[in-house]
Amino acid sequence: MGGRRPRIHPRGSGGAADRRLSREGLMTSDVVTVAFALGYLGDSFHGSQVQPDVRTVQGDLEAALSAPGITATESARVRMSSRTDAGVHARMNVGCCELPAAVWADIGEDGFIRVMNDGLDESVVWAAMEVEPGWNPRPALRRTYRYRLEALRGWNNETSEEELSSVLSLFIGEHDFTAFARIEEGRSPVRCVESCQPWSEAGRPVGFEIAAESFLWNQVRRIAWAVVRVLAGDLSAAAVSEALAAGVVRSDLGVASARWLTLWSIEHAQAEFDSGVVEAGDLLSAPPADADEREHRMWQATAEMEQKLLLRRCWMQALSTRR
């Protein structure tokens, strides 16, 4: 997962074929639809979605998919469940693609994972399965993100789980998140947050975990910054509640850095992937107390390496269970 030169890839396009009923009961044809779980280190990419002239997660996946032994065609196309910005890591995202049925029958899940990973760098495919033809990864039951709040300047190491939980509870339920997102034209600002709770390791709150069917652009990062401000005392809980109720932007509440945000998991009804639980208490160090700006930046550099090590440990665990 390191040392290779970044690759830049154009968008491809897929095709279709007549379908028939397979022995497993799925509709198949000359091609099959394969869903796969993948993870990646977000600071190596200009986001997940393919863009011209820059390296993206989707671009790397489509290049790997075009390799001999899989599709061997420049028209390979990958669809992804969630879009992530530059700098945002993913422990788990979900993609899907079409493969020649004969190739899938020959290489199967293990072969697909091996061949894809041979062509990837700073990302890894760790599970795969055949799904019904035309399966769309975008609709999901639940998406879960984690944000490492302790890496932000202004975080108080003495914050208790109870204090953090109290602030996080403000965002649970259905609200108009206009003040806590970058609203795209034509998209509703109303979202229902199913859960928003402390993320703790070794008994220490390190951040928060938030789950919903879908999120708005920058929503989690803006929530993260608001939480730190409330805990620091320079934003009131009442102001947060008022902003959620009003559904308007009366003042810029700020946005936290992408570098501490991780897409943790995605749940689909027809494609279930699980990498298991990885304890991170021995990996994530606490920020030094009373550190000056230079010392804090040095610790942040260490914290970034810790995050990446945690993700690699998750992926290695998922791959090792396949042996």
Question: Mind explaining what this structure looks like?
Answer:
With 323 residues, the chain is α+β, with helices and mostly antiparallel strands. It has 2 domains: 20-138, Alpha-Beta Plaits; 142-270, Pseudouridine synthase I, catalytic domain, C-terminal subdomain (Alpha-Beta Plaits). It contains 6 helices and 11 strands. The chain has helices at residues 57-65, 101-118, 161-168, 219-232, 237-246, 293-320, and strands spanning 19-21, 27-29, 31-40, 78-80, 89-100, 123-131, 142-147, 173-176, 190-201, 204-212, 261-267. A hairpin with an 8-residue loop joins strand 4 and strand 5 (89-100). The chain is globular. Mean pLDDT is 87; it is low at 1-28.
How does the SSE layout of this entry go?
Blueprint: E1 19-21, E2 27-29, E3 31-40, H1 57-65, E4 78-80, E5 89-100, H2 101-118, E6 123-131, E7 142-147, H3 161-168, E8 173-176, E9 190-201, E10 204-212, H4 219-232, H5 237-246, E11 261-267, H6 293-320
Parallel strand pairs: 5-11
Antiparallel strand pairs: 1-2, 3-5, 3-6, 4-5, 7-10, 7-11, 8-9, 9-10
Structural class: alpha+beta
For the largest beta-sheet, the strand count, sense and barrel status come to:
9 strands, mixed
CA-atom Rg in angstroms: 21 Å
State the helicity in percent bands. Answer: 25-40%
End-to-end Cα distance, whole Å, is 20 Å
> What's the overall average pLDDT, rounded?
87
Low-confidence stretches: 1-28
Number of H/I helices: 6
- CATH fold group of the largest domain: Alpha-Beta Plaits
